[in-house]
Amino acid sequence: MKLRELAHSRTGDKGNTSNISVIAFDPKHYLLLLQQVTAARVKAHFAGVAEGEVVRYELPNIAALNFVMSYALGGGVTRSLALDAHGKSLSSALLDLEIEAPSDHS
Questions:
Q1: Would the pTM count as exceeding 0.85?
Q2: What is the three-class DSSP state of 90?
Q3: Are 14 and 69 in contact (CB under 8 A)?
Q4: Which residue has the higher pLDDT, 106 or 18?
Q5: Nearest alpha-carbon partner for 24 in 2, 4, 45
Q6: How far is CA 21 from CA 5, 31, 62, in A?
Q7: What angle is formed at CA 59 by the lines to CA 56 and CA 64, rounded to 5 degrees?
Q8: What whole-number distance in Å separates Cα of residue 79 and Cα of residue 31?
Q9: SS3 sequence, 20-73?
């Protein structure tokens, strides 16, 4: 299943760094997100985009994860000719990540 079936996402940027949040629709799926949406998987998913470190921050009180990706915006908003200089489409790309369905998912 796609991550988008269990979570939504938002992005932000600062210079050449992108942050992507992944927020569970239902808090009961937070543990599954913790297990399956790791920094290593996100870095692999964005191979060729995130050229630096990917750090995951866990926010259990709001059933969310936040990923900070260094060197991910082609130099940053003022230095890149990329169509999506702010990286707003990265959230949609992350939600395409394949994950195993939870046992309660039909």
A1: no
A2: helix
A3: no
A4: 18
A5: 4
A6: 15, 15, 11
A7: 80
A8: 38
A9: EEEEECCHHHHHHHHHHCCHHHHHHHCCCCCCCCEEEEEEHHHCEEEEEECCCC
